[in-house]
Design brief:
InterPro entries: Ribosomal_eL27, Ribosomal_eL27_CS, Ribosomal_eL27_KOW, Ribosomal_eL27_sf, Translation_prot_SH3-like_sf
GO cellular component, one term: ribonucleoprotein complex
Shape: globular
CATH topology: SH3 type barrels
Family: Belongs to the eukaryotic ribosomal protein eL27 family.
GO molecular function, one term: structural constituent of ribosome
Largest sheet: 3 strands, antiparallel
Number of strands: 3
Strand order of the largest sheet: 1-2-3
Pfam families: Ribosomal_L27e (PF01777)
Order of helices and strands: EEHEH
Radius of gyration: 16 Å
Length: about 110
């Protein structure tokens, strides 16, 4: 999920870069025989928020429209660890909400290549 793109080059970052939110730890497999508590525990997601160089991103035909709050998830979060934790938490909550709705199932599966 790409919340923001930065085309302007600054002294701290001389390359074109993008703020990216993604999944660090994917949800585990859930079956119908499991209880609600176990399903809730296995449905947890660990999110990350990073700035990537555009050369290190690979465009694909896939896209996900998960709206992240731009006031919480922005480039300024990297200056303060508390703000970064808040941004990660925001991404985690949004990802878990989308996972529970059952949409974009391919997004919540670990890439195997």
């Amino acid at each position: 999920v790409n919340p923001q793109t930065f085309y302007n080059r600054t002294k701290s970052s001389r390359v074109v870069h993008a703020l990216v939110a993604g999944i660090d730890r994917y949800p585990r497999k859930v079956t119908t025989t499991m209880g609600k508590k176990k399903i809730a525990k296995r449905s947890k997601i660990k999110a990350f928020v990073k700035v990537f160089n555009y050369n290190h991103l690979m465009p694909t035909r896939y896209s996900v429209d998960i709206p992240l709050d731009k006031t919480v998830v922005n480039k300024d979060v990297f200056r303060d660890p508390a703000l970064k934790r808040k941004a990660r938490r925001e991404a985690k909550v949004k990802f878990e909400e989308r996972y529970k709705t059952g949409k974009n199932k391919w997004f919540f599966q670990k890439l195997r290549f």
